[in-house]
Amino acid sequence: MTSDLTAPAGRRIVIVGGVAGGMSAAARARRLDARARIVVLEQGHYVSFANCGLPYHLSGEIPDRSELLLHTPASLARTLDLDVRTGHRALSIDRAVRKVTVRSAAGTYTLPYDALILAPGAEAVRPPIDGLDHPVVHSLRTVPDVDRVRARIDALTDASGQDAPTAVVVGAGFIGLEAVEALVARGLRVHLVELADHVLPPLDAELAPLLAEELLTHGVHLHLGASAQSVAAMDTGSAGAASVTLSDGAVLSADLVVVNVGVRPASRLARDAGLELGARGAIRVDADQRTSDPQIWAVGDAVEVIQAVTGATAPVPLAGPANRQGRRAADSVCGRRTTPQAPVLGTAIVRVFGLTAAVTGASQTQLRAAGIDHEVVHLHPAHHAGYFPGAEQIHLVASFAPDGALLGAQAVGRAGVDKRIDVLATAIRAGMGADDLAELELAYAPPYGSAKDPVNMLGFVAQNVLDGTMPQWQAWELDEVLATTLVLDVRSRAEYDGGHLDGALNIPHTELRQHLRAVREAAAGRPISVRCASGVRSYLATRVLLAEGLDARNLSGGWLTLQAARPGVGRAELSVAGRR
């Protein structure tokens, strides 16, 4: 073992790990300290690459692989005077003497540091699936990963003749959905396996069916509520072909299997050095990214952060927070004023063929788990003025505290989703509530939005719900509603004939005032649960009924939300009874 003691004047900053957090820290530290000796240790061959772009290179949308490689050791040495060492793995940290033991192809050596920044990232979760070492099984996290998958697809398509190769994707999270889209674009038949009961588990359950429908439309076979149990060789005449057995008994043939079921913090180095870890194995840091050792900082997917709404602590493997953490750690190392780590919202977005899904803040599931009281609001506005050609519907869900504070928001649609979720993420960060959303002044012209933007409408509706102007019921209350209330369907007769709830009374909202006696008689003292297609006409009807002293509630999001949350509604529960 040798010791690398050659260092010019100035502090010696050692960074373990590159990519988002590590390279942001290295670049920022260089800009702040021109004399520092900055060494970056990266165990892989690529220190700075666009890992979020990997699925789009797989699909061919980013055709040139070199576009993913943002910097090389040579370019970083030339532009920032950084000593970047790829193929160098940090083995251990001796905190007492401030040295890192490193292994490379040339041997093992020790590297002293004045400040150490850990950016080890995350490692793929290896699920309990027999046969994961089969050659058809791949993950999609690194440049070599995507190289191997592309090579496999090229070999399959060259040899397949008329039959499209088959891929099985295990895990329907963000990366899994991007992989599915890429594989379909390459001409493969795709099966998607997800243990949860809906795709994209972070998404609220009433929005996920929209993604499922889009996947089905593009020929993807869905296996929800099932897990992969084993991958085994199969004698089909196709080299490397395998069978994938699922927990529900299904057996899928596969020429390619992509497994992405999540990641865990790569915190072994920190753990072995005795640094404090959180309950889920992430490195615990303060608001300046400093660990329990005052000379060691940590950033990126391996660190523990606080969820902004629920206060829960967990790692959040997202590029945005990792980049900001790298900058913050460098500021702290160099003795600069920092912008302390704010609680993380977990804002994320994914494209699923023609749809976009995005989330920010806390989901309904997280709020319920945390015991946080909240009201949920559903809207289906157009992404720009409805009279301007090309208007697309946005399915928008948001949760509000009883005092009006915005707690979380999610959206699915074909256009305008990113814009609204970005505004709502900013609103949560700023502590805004329903009243603030209602008064936000946002850019408007018919090609871009509406005079009452969907964000404003979210505020208006939340105000009505929270102050009692619009009592509401939710799709998940359907069974209780059918058993204990009168369901009043205020859509047109033609809409009603196209699908409705068993036992519902149909009176179009424009005729409601003329039939109030009939409503009273049908209700017979029961509450009245009003519904229409999207919640707008039923809101008008609910106000009429409330003015008459009746106990009425409006279905949040209307029939659109109900059918998404309860896909069987409108099919198995169709009836011709109860129409007026």
Automatic annotation (TrEMBL):
Q: Which InterPro entries match?
A: FAD-bd_OxRdtase, FAD/NAD-bd_sf, FAD/NAD-binding_dom, FAD/NAD-linked_Rdtase_dimer_sf, Pyr_nucl-diS_OxRdtase_dimer, Rhodanese-like_dom, Rhodanese-like_dom_sf
Domain Rhodanese positions: 481-571
**What name does the UniProt record give this protein?**
Pyridine nucleotide-disulfide oxidoreductase
Which PANTHER family does the UniProt entry name for this protein?
NAD(P)H SULFUR OXIDOREDUCTASE (COA-DEPENDENT), PYRIDINE NUCLEOTIDE-DISULFIDE OXIDOREDUCTASE DOMAIN-CONTAINING
Q: Is Oxidoreductase included in the keywords of this UniProt record?
A: yes
A Pfam family (short name) is Rhodanese
Q: One GO molecular-function annotation for this sequence?
A: oxidoreductase activity
Q: Family assignment? A: Belongs to the class-III pyridine nucleotide-disulfide oxidoreductase family.
| Cofactor(s) essential for the protein | FAD
Keywords attached to this Swiss-Prot or TrEMBL record, sorted alphabetically, are: FAD, Flavoprotein, Oxidoreductase, Redox-active center
